[in-house]
Amino acid sequence: MNRFKNTKSIQQGFSRMVLVISLAFVVMPITAFGLEALPKVPPVPKDNPMTRDKVELGKQLFFDPRLSVTGTVSCNSCHNVMASGTDNRPTSFGVFGKKGGRSAPTVWNAALLSVQFWDGRAASLEDQAKGPILNPVEMGMPSEKAVVDLIASIPGYASQFKSVFQGKNPVTYDNIAKAIAAYERTLLTPDSPFDRYKRGQKKALSKKAVAGMQAVESLGCTGCHTGPNFAGPAMAVGEGFYQKFPVFPGSVYEKKYNLTQDQGRYDVTKKSDDKNVWRVPSWRNVALTAPYFHNGSVATLDEAVRVMGKTQLNQDLDNQTVENIVEFLNSLTGTFLVQKMPQLPPTPNRHTTEKDGL
Amino acid sequence: MNRFKNTKSIQQGFSRMVLVISLAFVVMPITAFGLEALPKVPPVPKDNPMTRDKVELGKQLFFDPRLSVTGTVSCNSCHNVMASGTDNRPTSFGVFGKKGGRSAPTVWNAALLSVQFWDGRAASLEDQAKGPILNPVEMGMPSEKAVVDLIASIPGYASQFKSVFQGKNPVTYDNIAKAIAAYERTLLTPDSPFDRYKRGQKKALSKKAVAGMQAVESLGCTGCHTGPNFAGPAMAVGEGFYQKFPVFPGSVYEKKYNLTQDQGRYDVTKKSDDKNVWRVPSWRNVALTAPYFHNGSVATLDEAVRVMGKTQLNQDLDNQTVENIVEFLNSLTGTFLVQKMPQLPPTPNRHTTEKDGL
Asked: N or C: which end of chain A has fewer CB within 10 A?
């Protein structure tokens, strides 16, 4: 059974979305999305309003492997929007077969997070998008200038940037990131069984899922996994919601899954309190994003639930409780938009980079 | 300017296509497509009829990186249908950063070729699809059984194979290849300026392009680049149309672009006559598929034209002639179908392979 339910295309839904976003910012501040329902629209920064053309441009860039030094790795390579928004690998392969250090987080609903990356080092989707392109083990481009020169040299991009961003030098690294972020803000997964349940369709959740929901509340999981994205309470953009992992050190899982080698947010802040501290990840679509945790060390969701019970709450969860929680987490799998494939602007008559040998 | 023109989706056009294919096989044998117009339908083998569900399944498989041992390389990685149907690289990167030996040919209109691969070693799209999945420098899967076990373990695939192929063991390596081939048969690019010109729209070609067309005929290029796909005369499936390259040895280009190191079809047949012999590649969309030749050694189309003039016809083409021919070749860029993205069936609650460390 294909879990992705086809409802409507981004194209069809887009106009309504832009309207709703406009209204939302009149009547509702970012922090008032409510506690549990998935918002229909993401927060949109004032300096990067969403337009249809910008989203389409961003989609092309998101899928364009020419943004990597080898021409083989696109944003979508590790954040596959035809699937879970991840690459479902422990850690990703970038250019030249190089491996990254952390598991790729999903891009679906990332627009609802107040900070990006596992360690929260980017305040916005715009900031996030600038990282992997230049990271030597990800897309490996040598400099912002190299990226800008490449994109500006592709006629179809040059004209689209001119139309979307105006001005004398519309192709900038900032604008590349803005377009990608605008596309990513369309990647929400509404209408999960849980959301339908919350709207009053009591049959949308099985008894087991309801038992799982009660368990995560009574155990205290929702102390962190709260809010509409189950990733923490609503925060201002750039203000992250973090937690230590493990809270209770010394469990059998800590060694088995090598949970503490990567020091997480400490690498960003160098504050000792931030050792092994991480942005609280979302539960939305978590059933589809195995393997789990920052190092992708745990292959199954039931084991991930057991690990979290022990390391964060010092609880040895029994099998029935684990099963119920897994059932509940599956009810957070939303509806994935049917999308048109982008068509990447060509460079007729020449190799884009005119470099051989890479 | 985006050269890809959006006309209609595969979904919209599909029913009509199936109907046309059915009619075509009543009234028209495979070899009677005519000399120059791009056929509206491809030849379809009797043992792999096209159905909507099979094409949709094949599209999912074509885009599914889980068909590689690392979960990172799909058919689309090297045959990017959001672009030219190639990766626009000299040679491709497969799993673990390994590099292939030959430049990836385009998948667009490959359904019109009578043999596949640069050396013609596969008689059909079905045969071709089976190769890269198991090739250690491409997708690197260890065995047909490993591929079949993997696909059968994904619930959404298991049910689709059952519905599409019926029988007790619908997930077989043959059926995986059949589904992929069925999808690839939808990848035609009709309605190029040249096709419109041939249908009577005399303004569809510029004067320069017409001069280029006359040049390729008078010079003798169309001795090989003939037929509707400009890849040779109509042949029975499995019967290839080949040519030596270079025909005239010893040119400056031969050394500069290392044209003879790879012995081409000789590696398949071990016949000395087949040394440096290659399947004649199509001119359709050739303006978009740089870099050129089996080793991707030539970065621009004008240089490729010069090389071919010298090596195949012993002609030093002047700049004006080269320019005209390039203009004509650009008129063979067709219309690329707008496609919906596939949605890849997930493996809820678990990592697909449950392998770490790769």
From this structure: N
Taking the Cβ of residue B71 and every Cβ of chain A, the question of whether any pair is shorter than 8 Å is answered with yes
Q: Which helix (H) or strand (E) holds A279?
A: strand A277-279
Give me B107's structure tokens. Answer: 């998948």
pLDDT in tens, B32-45: 233 367 888 899 99
| A12 in contact with chain B, both atoms CB, cutoff 8 A | no
Is the Cβ of B88 closer than 8 Å to some Cβ of chain A?
yes
Categorise residue B302: left if φ over 0, alpha if ψ from -120 to 50, beta otherwise.
alpha
Q: Are the Cβ atoms of B288 and A81 closer than 8 angstroms?
A: no
ipTM entry: 0.91
Confirm or reject contact between B159 and chain A (CB < 8 A): yes
Please name the residue of chain B whose CA is at the shortest distance from the CA of residue A353: B299
Contacts of A70 in chain B (CB under 8 A): 89, 93
CB pair distance less than 8 Å for B82 and A98: no
pLDDT grade, residue B357 (50/70/90)?
A: low
Buried b or exposed e, range B279-292, using 16+ CB within 10 angstroms = bbbbbbbbbbbbbb
Instruction: List CB contacts (< 8 A) between B351 and chain A.
Output: 88, 290-291, 299-300
Phi, psi (deg, nearest 5) at residue B298 = -115, 120
Neighbouring residues of B124: CB distance < 8 A, sequence distance ≥ 6: B45, B116, B181, B237, B238
Separation in Å, CA of B191 to nearest CA in chain A: 17
Question: What's the burial of A358, exposed, middle or buried (CB within 10 Å: 0-12/13-18/19+)?
Answer: middle
Reported as half-sphere exposure (CB side, CA atoms, 13 A), residue B26 has a value of 6
Residue B56 is among the residues annotated as catalytic for this protein: no
Q: How far apart are the first and last CA of chain B?
A: 41
pTM of the model: 0.91
Buried b (16+ CB within 10 A) or exposed e, B151-160: bebbebbbeb
pLDDT in tens, A211-256: 999 999 999 999 999 999 999 998 998 999 999 999 999 999 999 9
Cα–Cα distance for residue pair A188/A56, rounded to 1 Å? 16
Cβ contact A350–B290 (<8 Å) = yes
State whether residue B340 sits within 8 Å of chain A by CB.
Answer: yes
Give per-10-residue mean pLDDT for chain A (358 aa): 43 48 38 56 95 98 97 97 97 94 97 96 97 97 96 97 97 98 97 95 97 96 94 92 98 98 97 98 98 96 98 98 98 96 97 66
Query: What span, in angstroms and rounded, lies between the C-alpha atoms of B52 and B58?
Result: 10
Q: Does B166 lie at the interface with A, CB-CB under 8 angstroms?
A: no
Most A-contacting residue of B72, B92, B322 (CB-CB within 10 A), to test interface: B72
